[in-house]
Structures are given as C-alpha cells and as structure tokens.
Amino acid sequence: MNPFADTVQSLREAFHSGKTRPAEFRAAQLEGLNRFLKENRDSLLAALAQDLRKPPFESEISEISICQSEINLALNSLHSWMKDEHVSKNLATQLDSAFIRKEPYGVVLIIAPWNYPLNLMLVPLVGAIAAGNCVVLKPSEMSSSVEKVIGEVLPRYLDKNCFAVVLGGPQETSALLENRFDYIFFTGNTTVGRIVMAAASQHLTPITLELGGKNPCYVDDNCDLQNVANRVAWFRFFNAGQTCVAPDYVLCSPEMREKLLPALQHAVTQFYGKDPQSSPDLARIISPKHFLRVRGLLGSGRVAFGGQSDEQERYIAPTVLVDVKETDPVMQEEIFGPILPILTVSGVEEAIAFIRKREKPLALYAFSNDSKVVHQMLDQTSSGGFCGNDGFMHLTLTTLPFGGVGNSGMGTYHGKFSFDTFSHQRGCLLRSAGLEKFNSLRYPPYAQRNLGL
Ligand code: NAD
C-alpha cells in the first residue's frame, strides 16, 4: 500500500463533495494564507535566516510581499476569473449558449525547492486555491526550518479536508508521485524535472515544470557602466546567487570587461563592505553539499576578485571569474551560487550565436543604451522571460507570465496565469431540446442534402 494513498484519496473525496467550488470557500482559504503570513511573519523570517541566512530585507521583498500581492490579486479578481467566458457562435448554434467553464482539475500536487522556499510553495498554492483545487504540498527538505513551519503551522490556516502537507525528501516524493494526481506543479532542477515528468506520464497527468539553467547577460559597449554593474551585482549576489533567474554569466567585449571589472568590484564593496563575510546582507549556501559543489566551480578560469570561502559558515565571497573557457566546469552547469564568470565576445551578433548554441534559458538579460541592441537580442533568441536593462524585475509583474521554455521548463504562472494553469478550460455548449426541424438538416440520407458544393 502506498504510504500516501489515503491522503490523496481523502482529498479526492473532499474535492468530489464540491466543497472547493464556491468562491466564498476559495476566498476564505486565501484569507487564511494572508493570516498565516501576517501572524507568523517573525517565525518565517527567522526560519529563512536559519536555512539560508537570508537577510530580512531579501526575505520581505522576495518571499513574503510577493506572496501577499499574489493573494490580494487573487482575492480581488476571483469572481471575474471564475466567471464562464462566453464565446462567439456560428450559424447552427445562434440560439444556444457557448462558453468556457474554468473547471478545477481536482487534486493537485505542488513540489517546491529550497531557494525561495516560501514564495515557490505559496505562489503556486494561491493559483491552485483560486482555481478551486484540493492540494498536496511538498516543501523542500533542504530548507528544513521553513519546511517545519509549513508542516506544523500552515495547516492550521487551511481547510484540513482539502489541503495536506507531506514532508520528506526524494524517497517520500517518489512515493507521492506513484499516486494519481490531476495536476502536478514542480519547481526544481532539470534532472528531477525529468523524474517528475516520467511519473506524471504514467497517469497522463498534466504538469508544469519550473526548472533552472544558465541565464545569459549581455552587456553592450554602449551602456551606463556603473548602473549596469550595480544591477548585475545585485541580482547575481541576491540570496548568495541561489536564484533560478539570476544571470549565470556575462557576455561582453574584451574592452567592456576591463571597465566592468572595477565597476562590479565597486558595487560589491558598496553593497557588502570590504569584508563581505561580515556583511549581514549576504546569504549563505544552503547546505555543506551545495557549498562544496559551488566552491569547486571557483577553479574555473581566473579569479578577478572574491574567491574566498569558509566551509564552516557555508560562505562564498561574491566572486567574478575571467578567462573562463566554454569547456570549464563553471560553464557546464547552472552555478546557483555567488560566482559570475565574464566571457568575451566581439559584439551582439557573437553573443546571440553563443546563446543560441545552448539550451533555452529561464531568463535572458541585455544591457544597452541602444534600444536596437536590446531588441536584436530579444528578437533573435528564445528564453522563458526577458528583461532589458535590468535583472529579474520582470518577475515582479503579476501581469506577465513566468515560466521556462525548452530545458528551462514548461507552463507559466503568476497572477491570472496561475489561475489558468490550475484550471481546465472546459468547452461547453448548451442547446435547446427542440428545434428538431432545423437539426434534421444534418441527418441522413445525405443524398437529400444540398450543401451547394
Ligand atoms: P530539486 O529538484 O533538488 O528539489 C525540488 C524538490 O524535488 C524538493 O522538494 C525535493 O524534495 C524533490 N526531489 C529532489 N530529488 C528528488 C528525486 N530524486 N525524486 C523525487 N523528488 C525529488 O531542486 P532544488 O535543488 O531544491 O532547487 C534548485 C533548482 O531549482 C535549480 O536548478 C533552480 O534553477 C531550480 N529552480 C527553478 C525555479 C523556477 O521558477 N523555474 C525556481 C527556483 C528554483
């Protein structure tokens, strides 16, 4: 017997009872989520600090307030999102009612990673609740303090019959995945994404995969140097580089590289002081295993600045690498740490060719004062999302879909896109039982029908 079969079965029964269908039920759960964030703000900030030494400011803007704005948007939009969408009709259906019903899938599984353990668990949950589903939540075991709060406290704010939290690692997740779900939403790395997709295929369960990859960042010769350096440094070293949309490497000309290096170093000193290890504003690597992996990447190319590390604290200094070859380890995997390699190209065309040779990234960034260059990068490449002249600010808009393409994932969410992701769009036509004379025009014998052909 599968250890989670009973949990999934009882959620399915709750779903079939129709409990999650009314807007009032959904709104009450969303309000519960809001209360959870408000009443447990301090313990959530403490848990994030314990897991990742996440600075409270970063936790506020990238975890708590993002969830709150998604909840508030869903609460304000619930009725309009849920409404049947009436569509235009053809001659034969003029007297009928044709509409798209936004139907909840049923029992949904949400699997979250550790790098933004609250945001990446709750933002999908908001969409799943708004769409009227029952949900199994599987937080990451790596961010164990946040996992504990989610496991022990969150269920008090949600309907127990409709929402369940399952704790554990790969073994528990694998067992969970043997069950039939109506939708699976996974955020994590590409390797595990493949495992999830294979499990989903057993039941033909639709999925969203929010995966990672190497996000390129092109810096044009024509740019405001220090502004670019500040923005690149901030979003590369935010959360100690453990951000799926962080720029993974910079592409620029050799001349720009020489100017960018001191500007990046200046930004790092401004942000974290002369000794970043003592700064309260720099997070730590999640685990000893990840620390060793990231530290191993410091051996690629040459350290231009940074490069220090402290295993005890899982600290890695904000580091920029130069003279990196495409074949070096740092260019073979997603870095997911505070390391930024700079690779040189002759210009935008070569940068585009470099990007196109690789898997489609989750995000792509282009910095230039010349909008033609930014548009050229946008027009001639593909990525999950794109931001010109800044990094990951596109994520802050709930009006933009967020998701990957190709190796960086499939499906989108945020704002209404989350509601749509967790809704089956049921095409409905309600016809009159009468008007048979009109209908009889389509019945055999067809020889009597004149289609005017
Ligand atoms: P992960 O794939 O290791 O873990 C994610 C979840 O999968 C966890 O809950 C974990 O318990 C479970 N899991 C791990 N191994 C498993 C296995 N063998 N079988 C079944 N389940 C398993 O991801 P992570 O290391 O926690 O997160 C980092 C990765 O996630 C990076 O690649 C990053 O780019 C990506 N990510 C993507 C997004 C996005 O929105 N696209 C956001 C954050 C992180």
TrEMBL record:
<dbReference type="InterPro" id="IPR029510">
    <property type="entry name" value="Ald_DH_CS_GLU"/>
</dbReference>
<comment type="similarity">
    <text>Belongs to the aldehyde dehydrogenase family.</text>
</comment>
<keyword id="KW-0560">Oxidoreductase</keyword>
<feature type="domain" description="Aldehyde dehydrogenase">
    <location>
        <begin position="7"/>
        <end position="424"/>
    </location>
</feature>
<dbReference type="InterPro" id="IPR012394">
    <property type="entry name" value="Aldehyde_DH_NAD(P)"/>
</dbReference>
<dbReference type="GO" id="GO:0005737">
    <property type="term" value="C:cytoplasm"/>
</dbReference>
<feature type="active site">
    <location>
        <position position="210"/>
    </location>
</feature>
<feature type="active site">
    <location>
        <position position="244"/>
    </location>
</feature>
<dbReference type="InterPro" id="IPR016160">
    <property type="entry name" value="Ald_DH_CS_CYS"/>
</dbReference>
<keyword id="KW-0520">NAD</keyword>
<dbReference type="GO" id="GO:0004029">
    <property type="term" value="F:aldehyde dehydrogenase (NAD+) activity"/>
</dbReference>
<dbReference type="InterPro" id="IPR016162">
    <property type="entry name" value="Ald_DH_N"/>
</dbReference>
<dbReference type="GO" id="GO:0004028">
    <property type="term" value="F:3-chloroallyl aldehyde dehydrogenase activity"/>
</dbReference>
<dbReference type="Pfam" id="PF00171">
    <property type="entry name" value="Aldedh"/>
</dbReference>
<protein>
    <recommendedName>
        <fullName>Aldehyde dehydrogenase</fullName>
    </recommendedName>
</protein>
<dbReference type="InterPro" id="IPR016163">
    <property type="entry name" value="Ald_DH_C"/>
</dbReference>
<dbReference type="InterPro" id="IPR016161">
    <property type="entry name" value="Ald_DH/histidinol_DH"/>
</dbReference>
<dbReference type="GO" id="GO:0006081">
    <property type="term" value="P:aldehyde metabolic process"/>
</dbReference>
<dbReference type="InterPro" id="IPR015590">
    <property type="entry name" value="Aldehyde_DH_dom"/>
</dbReference>
